[in-house]
Design goal:
This protein is about 15% helix and about 45% strand. The protein is α+β, with helices and mostly antiparallel strands. The strands form 4 sheets. A 5-stranded mixed β-sheet has the order 11-10-14-13-12, with no helix packed on it. Strands 2-5-1-6 form a 4-stranded antiparallel β-sheet, covered by helices on one side. A 3-stranded mixed β-sheet has the order 4-3-9, with no helix packed on it. The longest helix has 11 residues. It is elongated.
């Protein structure tokens, strides 16, 4: 089912936590030819300190969810029934639940590349303000719920399936400026 702009819908699949990558791989294998345009579980990149050195790590943006881009939700639902483990296509009053245009745009704008990973942003702290100087958070307005400097993470509020959800995004404070 194409949107008015001729783009396939982004459907949400709920899976057991920790099984996102396995579900993506199984769904790509089981779905028939031409059913899936894209299937992924969006992630975000941050850094953590291991033995005094910073290492790049990736984490799930939406644990327990996989996004499947398709024109054929019935075929997708059938493929989900054929893969092992818990995986179900979310539904609402109108039928299968797909992301709205703003949610698709947010993920598409920030989760880059074929793997759909949100890169690490870098910021400078000036007094009580944090100014993002590099990465996907630069020049963007988000409601930042909190920043965990030790884990190089900012928690931002987004709309997901009609609800406000707080999601983590990599944000490293690289310098402090005196005010």
């Amino acid at each position: 089912m194409r949107t008015e702009a001729g783009v396939a819908e982004w459907y949400v699949v709920q899976v057991k936590g920790g099984r996102e990558a396995a579900t993506v791989a199984a769904l790509r294998q089981v779905a028939g030819e031409g059913v899936l345009e894209e299937c992924f579980s969006p992630r975000w990149r941050t850094q953590r300190k291991v033995r005094g050195a910073w290492e790049s790590v990736e984490r799930l943006l939406l644990p327990g969810y996989v996004i499947a881009v398709t024109d054929f939700p019935l075929e997708l639902d059938d493929a989900l029934r054929r893969i092992p483990g818990f995986a179900r296509l979310l539904r609402n009053e109108q039928g299968f639940a797909s992301l709205d245009r703003d949610e698709v745009a947010w993920i598409g704008r920030h989760a880059l590349g074929a793997d759909r990973v949100i890169p690490l942003s870098k910021a400078v702290k000036a007094g009580d303000e944090v100014v993002v100087v590099e990465g996907p958070l630069k020049d963007r307005w988000f409601k930042v719920a909190r920043i965990d400097r030790r884990r190089a993470t900012a928690y931002v509020e987004i709309d997901f399936l009609g609800r406000k959800k707080e999601v983590p995004i990599g944000l490293m404070i690289v310098a402090k400026q005196a005010v």
